[in-house]
Amino acid sequence: MFPVVLTGGQVGGLELDDRTLVVRAQEGDVRAFEVLARRHQGALYRLALRVTGDPDAAGEALREALLAAWRQLDRFPADAAFSTWMYRIVTDRCAAVLRRRPAREADPGPRAAPADSAYRDAGLDAEQAELRRAVRGLPYDQRVCWVLRELEGMADADVAEITGAGEGAVRDRVRQAWVRLAEVVVDATVRRLADEPVEPPPPVLDAVLEAVRAELRPQATLALESPLGANRLGHPAAAAVLRAVVDAVGGLRARSCRIVQEQGPAADVALTVVAPFGADLAAVAAEARRTVLAAGAQVLGVPLRRVDIEVVDLWTAP
Amino acid sequence: MDGPVSESSAERAAPVRLHVTEAAVASIAAATTVGVPGVATALTSDAVSGGAATDGSATSEAAAVAMTVEMTVEVAIAARLGHNCRDLAAAVQEAVGRAVAEQTGRPARVTVTVADVILE
Predict the structure, then answer these.
(1) B116 inside 8 A of chain A by CB
(2) Which residue, A164, A191, B38, B60, could crosslink B83 as a Cys pair with Cβ 3.0–4.6 Å?
(3) Which residues does residue A310 pair with via DSSP β-bridges, in sequence order?
(4) Are A33 and A25 within 8 A, CB to CB?
């Protein structure tokens, strides 16, 4: 019997790159999505907080954005960065949340914030409080462009990609925003605000993951033989197991995992992997193939007829 | 006067009709499922073809028909790492089928879906 090495916490422990995690999540791997969400939620919340100016609205926008991202993963552009894609979803959700809260939007005056809030007024100087109020008073399009450009430090091209506006329109919006803000702020205040630490995001992720798991109904399944009638194994679950065993082989990182079971109990597997730079690709692929075959029989209970492994990229240790 | 105890005429005329709801069958399935070693969680359990209905009159033709109609029970589980998914699914299938049959008096066709494998 070939030993199957499969340890727990693989996804979190391997520091997988965003692209690998996105591919896994697109195939229904909730753990991969969770790692992505945990990795980016701080920056996403900071953006939402800066755009909405309201911790409650920002938390609501973050929750809606993460759930929307899970549901729209199949539409994730192959050449996009996950962070850019998520920024776009967050700004969309911020707009939706603010539309539902017109009263608060129209009255951006000081509000009692928690003592540890990044938006606490008491501990910050009056200029920054004034700046926040002025930012909240900007038209939404100008506000988003200005926050992304001046507080998040993004290039015009990135802001354009996130907002869907052209670069010229982005520059115009930022310029118009500055005209309005110049009445109340100076550059130094903006720089202080940009450098200001932002409180950690509210605990919305657990609720998002709970909703995601509740929606998870494996559409594609593999048949499991049984004398009492065939049972089923969800494709995402089987793929997660096979990816985990590949992750334990010679520094490989599994990306996609397609499993096809057309006739009879045997299945064919096609995996794409990222391999470490300098590795003997033929050797590690052969070892991965052996361990996948063993996992099929020993862990899944599905005999594997064919295992194809395609190296799609190389990674180097940082 | 001493004599043999006999059923009353009312009891003979009105046999007991037992109806077990889908929710009850699903509860039997869920409780049985989590007791199978290797099952981390019973994610869902549904009796999809209606509850069990048996007529207390053993000679009733209708009851005999009801007793032979299989219920279909669907169970979804998360499996613990270290258990073969095929064998675990078969064990759950057998245990749930037996428990439902014992408690409702009706056979059940059970299908188990291993929807997740807990890798931690």
Answers:
(1) yes
(2) B38
(3) A272
(4) yes
Q: Do A90 and A65 meet the contact criterion of CB atoms below 8 Å apart?
A: yes
pLDDT 10s digits, A55-97:
899 999 999 999 999 999 999 988 889 999 999 999 999 999 9
Q: Nearest-CA distance from A261 to chain B in Å?
A: 15
Chain B: closest CA distance from residue A218 (Å)? 7
Element housing A304 (H / E): strand A304-315
Which residues does chain A have with pLDDT short of 50? 5-12, 105-123
Task: Say whether A92 sits in a helix, a strand or coil.
Answer: helix
CB B68 within 8 A of CB B113: no
Our CA angle for A128, A192, A162, nearest 5°, is 95
Report the chain A residue with the minimal C-alpha distance to residue B117. Answer: A237
Q: What is the pLDDT of residue A8?
A: 38
Q: Compute the mean pLDDT over every residue in chain B, rounded to the nearest whole number.
A: 78
What's at B107, amino acid-wise? P
Q: How many CB atoms lie within 10 A of CB A101?
A: 15
* pLDDT tens digits, one per residue of A15-25: 788 999 999 99
Determine whether the interchain pair B117/A241 forms a contact, defined as Cβ–Cβ distance below 8 Å.
Answer: yes
Query: CA-based angle B95:B100:B106, to the nearest 5?
Result: 130
Over residues A245-258, the pLDDT tens digits come to 999 998 899 999 99
Q: Compute φ and ψ for A178, nearest 5 degrees.
A: -65, -35
B109 in contact with chain A, both atoms CB, cutoff 8 A: yes
Asked if A224 lies within 8 A of B109 by C-beta distance, the reply is no
Give the span between the Cα atoms of B25 and B101, in whole angstroms.
Answer: 10
Share of chain B above pLDDT 70, in %: 69
What's residue B23's pLDDT? 86
- Residue B120, SS3 per DSSP: coil
Distance CA A222, CA A233 (A): 5
pLDDT above 50: residue B19: yes
| Amino acid letter, residue A247 | D
